[in-house]
Design a protein that fits this description.
It is a single chain. The chain is globular. By secondary structure, the chain is α/β, with parallel strands linked by helices. 32% of the residues lie in helices and 24% in strands. The structure holds zinc ion.
Length: 409
């Protein structure tokens, strides 16, 4: 099969991979990078089908661009397609606010809604004599690894996690000849999840019992729900704000893609959802814990809440995810300063960062790759692929293609 990355091979962002065999052309993911200005993959040629691994915008953000041009079907789980549609509309809103040219229009997002074809884990679809099978990727609800077979088996992982989280079960290895694997955390390890979670819970308890408030800037997709589930049943007054609210209900309605519908339900019941300005003021005054977007503090309601506690050393901002260079969250971690409505402000509240990553770490990727028993591994979606490539090359043929380069495996 012939392959070519349109984006996201040597960097985390804007993923797009073309695969071609017997005149059939597949496109795995087509995302954008939500920086300012946004980053886009190379323009996609006409394709016969788009396979969308999951809803995160660096995988899904440019799907309407393809659909509006080539009228293709988009294969995805319902948990992915429902959340991706919300994010596509959000991309248009953000480009409006920030004054960047629209990558597509509202009507294209609407058209995309009708282009989605559902696939469930364990199910197969046939195209051009090839079988396409969906497997769980363990990354966020609905995240899929696509296995394409035509005598030889190829597996595209999308983003994967190989440990159980509260929200989703881990990915299981699948035997394949060629493994096209993400490498976001190549060269980096995660702390032990259970110990790290305990450490986090202890810190929350310390702040709340000391009379402070904890603000958890959290990504809407996956992280908000993971935080809700981690803090559930501990007697805190928890408020949830931002796009993560609606997404929680989508996951609740799609129980096949989450670890425990009962536990997510309990977590949702145990929090107050902020609906409007009044609630926001109330949450600001009364909450023990506020879970809110944006995860990198570059918009969303988070700064409204931070404004109130920034001078209070009893309160805390606990960052729950990776902070990209150039974001407000990264600035806070590096300098203790935050950009609030265009003004640089010093933050006296406690600042700490926790690792609730939904990606496999370096040794987890190694272990996963070994268990898939491939002949060839194509590493993608990482800016430090070389370290992992070196470790893997002792046992496998490893390819690290760059964007635009054609290769055959
Ligand atoms: Zn992702």
């Amino acid at each position: 099969m012939k392959f070519r990355f349109l984006g996201g091979a040597s960097a985390v962002g804007s993923l797009g991979l073309i695969a071609e065999e017997n005149g059939l052309r597949l496109l795995f993911d087509y995302g954008m990078t939500p920086t300012s200005p946004p980053g886009y993959p190379q323009p996609a040629p006409e394709v016969d089908m788009l396979l969308l691994s999951h809803a995160h915008v660096d995988h899904s953000g440019m799907v309407p661009w393809v659909v509006s041009r080539y009228e293709v079907d988009v294969l995805a789980t319902p948990a992915t397609s429902l959340v991706a549609q919300i994010l596509m509309e959000d991309i248009l809103k953000i480009s409006e606010i920030e004054g960047y040219p629209h990558p597509y229009y509202k009507r294209d997002v609407k058209e995309t809604k009708y282009a989605f074809r559902d696939i469930a884990f364990g199910e197969s679809v046939y195209a051009g004599g090839m079988e396409i099978i969906a497997h769980s990727a363990g990354h966020i609800p609905g995240a899929t690894m696509f296995q394409v077979t035509n005598g030889k088996s190829y597996m595209f992982t999308g983003d994967i996690n190989t440990i159980n989280t509260r929200l989703v079960w881990k990915a299981k290895p699948v035997k394949t000849d060629v493994l096209i694997m993400e490498s976001t955390y190549a060269g980096r390890e995660h702390p032990d999840r259970r110990e790290h979670e305990l450490d986090f819970l202890n810190s929350v308890e310390e702040v709340v019992s000391g009379g402070g408030q904890v603000i958890l800037p959290s990504f809407a997709v996956g992280r908000t729900q993971e935080m809700m589930m981690t803090l559930a049943g501990r007697g805190y007054d928890i408020w949830v704000d931002g796009m993560g609210k609606g997404i929680s209900f989508i996951y609740l309605d799609n129980p096949d893609y989450i670890r425990s519908q009962a536990k997510l339900k309990k977590a949702i019941k145990g929090v107050s959802m902020v609906r409007g300005k009044r609630d926001r003021e109330r949450a600001s005054r009364e909450a023990d814990v506020i879970i809110t977007t944006s995860g990198m503090m570059d918009g969303g309601p988070v700064l409204t809440y931070v404004e109130r506690i920034k001078d209070d050393p009893k309160s805390a901002i606990f960052i729950t995810g990776y902070q990209v260079e150039g974001t407000n969250g990264r600035k806070l971690l590096d300098t203790g300063m935050l950009d609030i409505s265009g003004v640089e402000e010093k933050v006296s509240a406690q600042i700490r960062q926790y690792d609730f990553s939904a990606h496999a770490g370096h040794s987890e990727l190694l272990e996963f790759a070994r268990a898939c028993e491939p002949e060839t591994i194509v590493l993608m979606h990482g800016d430090q692929r070389e370290v992992l490539a070196k470790d893997l090359s002792e046992e496998f043929e490893v390819i690290t293609p760059v964007e635009g380069e054609e290769f055959e495996v």
